[in-house]
Predict the structure.
Amino acid sequence: MAILVEENTRLVVQGITGRDGSFHTVQMMEYGTAVVAGVTPGKGGRTFAGPDGAGVPIFNTVDEAVAETGANTSVVYVPPAFAAGAIEEAADAGVSFVVAITEGVPVQDMARAHAFARDHGTRILGPNCPGVISPGKAKVGIIPGNIVTPGPVGVISRSGTLTYEAVIHLTNAGVGQTTCVGIGGDTLIGTNFVDALEAFADDGDTEAIVMIGEIGGTDEQEAAQWVKENLRVPVVGFIAGQTAPPGRRMGHAGAIISGSSGTAEEKMKILEENGISVAKRPVDIVRLIQGVLPG
Amino acid sequence: MDIHEYQAKEILRANGIPVPPGEVATTPDEAVAIAERYGGTVVVKAQVHSGGRGKAGGVKLAASTSEVREHAENILGMKISGLTVEKVLITPAEDIDTEAYVGVLMDRKAQAPTFIVSAEGGVDIEEVAHSDPDAIRKLTIDPRYGLMRHQAYGLANSLYQDAALVKQATKIIHQLYAAFASSGASMIEINPLISTDAGEVKAIDAKMSLDDSELFRHPELVEYRDLSAEPTAETRAREADLSYVKLDGNVGCCVNGAGLAMATMDLVKYYGGEPANFLDIGGSSNPEKVVSALEIITSDPNVKVILINIFGGITRCDDVARGIIEATTRIDIKPPIVIRLTGTNEEEGLEILAKAGFSASSSMDDVVERGVEMANAG
């Protein structure tokens, strides 16, 4: 099994004709993801040329794409000014899971989109996230397919390339993954650590979880509490930003220490207090996870 | 983007909120001239992107022109949280009866704008939240409907007993939400919101952060950016669309991705070094960005070694390699460069580097350890 995306994922790509959208559509198809539709307003009726002669029908609206193809998952590559609107459109069309890759979406736009998606029972991943990959099954987003391998470990992370760093160490050590989820670095994200942990808790194949957090906010602290109270599988953690100065935004909109709250030190302490071993370096995640994996 | 008190007050005034007059001075002479125009007692307030200005001695009452001059002389040029004060706001002193706190911000957990109000204003609200949590009221707003009439009244009602004050505060809370929504703010705080002896409610201090991602909709607010409040290198980085934060160490870092960039800094520290900066070249594959990044890093005289850490995803290793070669031919880079390059198009990237006489490792730990050794040796 896996979480969020798997063999039954039928994907619609919003912004399929854009630079990033077209590049990653090909990558996702090459990985084996069922990309059933694309949406670009004004380009409906055309066909997107995928790898090996495969074609993907393009529609003007998500509504049409869902009606014609039965798409159940969407990935958003549209520019920041229109990204929240694209998420709302997907939710309105009945898409149950929307992955928003776009970076720089206005926060007030996202507040509205989150409220709308909640009312429509749609789960959002991101924005400003690398997406999700279930090795050997499906990839939605931009996580490189060649660094993952199937296995028993679930990975949740606020970061993109730092996730790759952790995952490649696992893969090289022969420790495979059920699903790797990048929840995104923005202030207002949809799926958070607790949501992703809940999904992994229901996945019978996930035997251990790696949680990669960073400075800013209290999501990791709440997740640690949740792990202690609810989760039976072991969790290993890593927190980036131990050397980050307070009050400065470190690239990600959400990565900022406000006052004395949201420091790496505080997060690492609370993770440890709740039974989560915290790796000092990304490479140490492997040793810790091997120590908690059953068998 | 944080803006100054006087700028936040301009936005509040434009939305109809009663704010006492005020003008900004950059010299003691200007400060005196402004104070003379107002007459009476004024407040001299440091304009700097930092909390705790009062505690740092950056806010002073002045009853005479000689006091205005004295305070302006002391405050201008003063350092608060490492930032030099270049401007003071001169504003008439008010007869304060009560002080309340009214703020609205984007709440991560609620995923929505949230008001925080307290009848105990004029002090650090985080301290009130800690010592007397019952004194604080929080209310989350559904951004699709905006602030409703009864919500604004309810918040105001928790601040005052007197009906006339509640009425004024209700209006101010509406205007505050309008200012928040229309300027693309991520936080506005009025602290304190005062009631005067004459029964008027006014905002006498304000703090505001704008969402950088929404500035494209508000070109007029971009001009509020205080370039003197940030190092030149950070301004250049922003213009080149790079995230850069200057730090005090000597290991210059050039990384793709914010999380990996922070982890790289942490690893520098782990191996006994000190990072000179945070720098994320972003997810794009533009060699030009690498050139700008290396220019910015080498402009820091403390940098003893440059550490490049790239894990290609969207970013392609060959593009980064081309950028490194381009940078070394175009600019004179003195510090040695250590490179970690792995991921998308790794082989092409390594080949480009090898031709130009550079070597690269695929291990982050290897290059960081080596980089730190070189920085500490030199």
